[in-house]
Design a protein that fits this description.
By secondary structure, the chain is mostly helical. It has one helix and no strands. It is rod-shaped and about 130 Å long.
């Protein structure tokens, strides 16, 4: 009986060793997952910042395009006025 008990204790110890190794492996995987999640969070923050910068540049470009359109309209108006004035000087 003592021999059988000793064998069972040995098997239990082996099983516990396997469980401990599996837990250690799970802990390592959890650490890797946490690290990857942290990196993804940092990248997402950087992407968000870049999208904000792109939006700002797009807003400035749109404002510049509006100013260009206004200047073009004013230039067309001035050109028309100049043509009218030049027509008065023709003989």
């Amino acid at each position: 009986m003592a021999k059988e008990s000793a064998e069972q204790v040995e098997k239990a110890a082996e099983s516990l060793g396997g469980i401990a190794a599996a837990v250690s492996q799970i802990n390592d995987m959890n650490t890797q997952i946490a690290s990857a999640a942290e990196e993804q969070s940092a990248v997402a923050g950087e992407i968000n910042s870049n999208v904000g910068n792109i939006r700002d540049v797009a807003d400035k470009t749109a404002a510049g395009a509006q100013q260009t359109a206004s200047a073009s309209e004013e230039l067309a108006r001035l050109s028309s006025t100049l043509q009218d004035l030049m027509g008065r000087f023709r003989m």
